[in-house]
Amino acid sequence: MPEQQILVLDPTGSDPDAEHQALRERGPAALVDILGVRAWSVSDPALLKQLLTSKDVSKDGRAHWPAFAQTVPTWPLALWVAVENMFTAYGTNHSRLRRMVAPALSARRTAALQTSIETLVTGLLDELDALPAGQTVDLREHLAYPLPIAVIGQLMGVPASQRAEFRIVVDNVFATHLTAEEQAANAATLYSLLDALITAKRTTPGEDMTSLLIATRDEEGDGSTLSDTELRDTLLLMISAGYETTVNVIDHALTTLLSDPQQLAHLWDGRSTWQDIVEETLRHEPAVKHLPLRYALTDIPLPDGQTIHSGDAILASYAAANRHPSLHQDADQFDATRVSKEHLAFGHGVHFCLGAPLARLEVATALRLFFERFPDAQLATRREDLQRLPSLISNGHTSVPVLLRPTTTD
């Protein structure tokens, strides 16, 4: 079969719905250019799940991507493939790294955070409640952002005074419109912050995951548990993935409910639950659109006659897969009453997101308490006028302007 013409992905993510439709129209997998790198974008959910669980597909670019050495020095997304943590690990190495982090995000520990999360949300809503009537407020900035940052900050032991700095550099990691030089400078700043955190926690450990990982690393001594690089990159993964993605889910859930009264009516009338809203948001507008990268260890034949060759890069296109017609009817429509909740927003297989239960809890709690406090809130602009984040990875808006009390009642 003749090779497809490569589809160049928009680094600014300006029209993701059209781009994802174009990917699906090209078949189960399509050749794309992602900031100068050729990869196979997989949008068919069945094929994607197959590849995500195949031993013939790796996330370790150093070992299994022939283009790694020549690509990393000049690629804006170098950090996504060059870190040394469970995100890029393969086989037993991945199991070793994941096993160290998993206890901190267990179902029991996550459930124990319910009261703390409710307290944080209530405090944020109290601040919104104090604003003058009729004032427009950006809910991304004043609710969607501060909650996940506070939760992951407490979990990881990041002092409140340093969270704003971490936010800036983590946001830039997801900003795919930046140049390779800008991303390199941002990575240097991020690692400087992580090194300072490690130094502080070695000196004064606390009851947090950073202190626990440092103790595990230092007690072993021989580096068989965590190398210095793995320690630093594991903290990078926990802090960045622990808040940025949750911000986007809260953003999109609020945006949908504030622009589609029928979905709130389903909830108030008992036809759906807050958990249903969360799951449909994850399906309809997943926090991550495309996740770089995986690599074929052998030739992989595709259902349409094409072949992903050994050494080729693979891009998991979760947003396109979530709306594939083979997965759901009327997939472009948000419907909290869907019977099937299936989606790939948290990945699939051994790399399934460890933080999924925590993210679900944060989003559901934020939505429930917000709409209990502000049941008449409305978007302050048309939904189609909201500006997308300049990213082909991160799926959110630059702001979510809202009128908390659009009408005054006596």
Q: Span from first to last CA?
A: 70 Å
**What is the tally of helical segments?**
19
Beta-strand share of residues: 5-15%
Return the string of H and E elements.
Answer: EHEEHEHHHHHHEHHHHHHHHHEEEEHHEE
Q: Level of helix content?
A: 40-55%
Q: Outline, from the CA principal axes?
A: globular
Structural class: alpha+beta
Structure keywords:
410 residues; alpha+beta; six-stranded mixed β-sheet; three-stranded antiparallel β-sheet; 48% helix; 9% strand
Summarize, please:
With 410 residues, the protein is an alpha+beta fold. Helix content is 48%, strand content 9%.
Explain what you see.
The protein has 410 residues and is an alpha+beta fold. The chain has helices at 16-25, 45-52, 61-64, 68-71, 78-82, 92-101, 107-111, 114-129, 139-144, 146-156, 163-173, 180-203, 209-220, 228-241, 244-259, 261-268, 274-284, 318-322, 356-373, and strands at residues 7-8, 29-34, 37-42, 57-58, 136-138, 291-296, 300-301, 307-308, 313-316, 378-379, 401-403. A six-stranded mixed β-sheet has the order 1-2-3-9-6-4. A hairpin with a 5-residue loop joins strand 7 and strand 8 (307-308). Helix 15 runs parallel beside helix 19. The longest helix is centred in the middle third of the chain and has 24 residues, at 180-203. The protein is globular and about 60 Å long. The mean pLDDT is 93.
